[in-house]
Amino acid sequence: MSKALQEKLRHVLANTVGSIVELPESALSVAVLSGKASLGPGLKIKKDVFEQLGMPVVLTAGSIESIEIDIPTTSLRTKPVVIRIRDVLIGLSPNPDANTRRAKLAAQERLWQQAGEEGEGIDPESAMGKMVQKIVDNIHIIVEDVHIRLEDTRTQSERYAMGLVLDRFSLRSYVVDRTGWAETCAKQVQRFLNKCLVFGDDTALPGQSGLGIYLHPGEAPVANPGSEAWRAAMLSYIVRQKRGRDGERPVSWVVGPSVIRTRISIDKQDSFDGCFSRCWSGQGAKQEVQVFISRLPVKLRNTALRNLYGLLFFCQNASRWQRFVQSRPACPVRGNAREWWQFAIKCELGEINRKTISVQALCKVTREGREYVAMYSRKAGAGRPWLTPLDAGESARLREFEDRYPADVTKTFRIQAWRL
């Protein structure tokens, strides 16, 4: 395997595995050079993973037992790269103070930088570029035992625990022709990226494997986050019939364990020329998705439904609360009704004003947008040394704009700046 290909593989692993868990740089280099690596045990998930995704939650504890990487260095043309991950345990709690707007903008900037780095060094049309594409076409990922648990303990009377559990997940590559989907290693670069995602083990009995969601109103949080006792408690929620270790805890399922098989086919060409469908009969489309669900039991009681609605409401309105956090009363609601009513009226008037757009406001947005594009193109002026760096006042002006306008508006202006 050439040095250029080794560096490309190391870069891909750093942007995927290395962006989630804390790993030394040498570990990825060893995996690429030797072809085999076992990372672990007890890998720690980075604290800012969910913050980078723009989610209004904070990580209380997160670990991955092991990550095994198998790179067939001598037979990349005929065998896939296999990544196997075991025991993904994540504990979360709501974070009403999260600045989701800033997190979304930071995530966009990182993705743009990664895209620029990945686009350098190897020509996609060269033999090396086609080899990299073929590796991506054939990669296999297997994940065993996943438990993501959200615990709200801000008030004793309204606390709850909600979790997502999965005993097995696999992502495999397929070659598709008119006869159907065949699980095999693609020997040539494929026009379509064909992947099959399976949540659960489709050979297990109904209800004994797959993706499940539970909701436990009033349940206390799992003690000592990150400890061995915490890991054992988190694993006890997962159903593992195939390995002879059934979940030890009684679970109140909102969506019972269900095996879900999803086929995804994406045309990698810039323009879609038209062809046969990869997932159904008839004319094809640029992107096709087909989902099979073997069994989907849904159970919602009054208390569970109320808590689920509250959780969805919290996630949907986290960015709105961030706008009014400065004027939010610090006192409890009971006994201070006047202050809270004044706060509610102020918030409602603010929402009404935001939905009313005048011609003057539109002109202001256009004018400030041009100003932002000019300043951000100087801030992100990598490879353009003739651009003058921002001074302190301009940097403050840039941050003030990003704090005042929605993240989607700022993203649009940033794309214009990057393309200058």
Radius of gyration over all CA atoms, rounded = 25 Å
Helix content: 25-40%
Biggest sheet record: 11 strands, mixed
Provide the β-strand percentage band.
15-25%
> What is the count of β-strands?
13
Structural class: alpha+beta
Distance between the termini: 38 Å
Compute the average pLDDT: 76
Number of helices: 11
Which descriptor suits the 3D outline? globular
The ordered H/E elements are HHEEHEEHHEEEEEEHEEEHHHHH
Task: Note poorly predicted spans.
Answer: 241-247
Question: What does the model show?
Answer:
- The protein is an alpha+beta fold and 420 residues long.
- It is built from eleven helices and 13 strands.
- Strands 1, 2, 3, 4, 5, 6, 9, 10, 11, 12 and 13 form an eleven-stranded mixed beta sheet that branches.
- Strand 7 (175-177) and strand 8 (180-182) form a beta hairpin.
- Helix 1 (3-16) crosses helix 2, helix 9 packs across helix 10 and helix 9 packs across helix 11.
- The longest helix is centred in the C-terminal third of the chain and has 22 residues, at 302-323.
- The chain is globular.
- It starts with a helix and ends with a helix.
- The model is unreliable at 241-247 (pLDDT under 50).
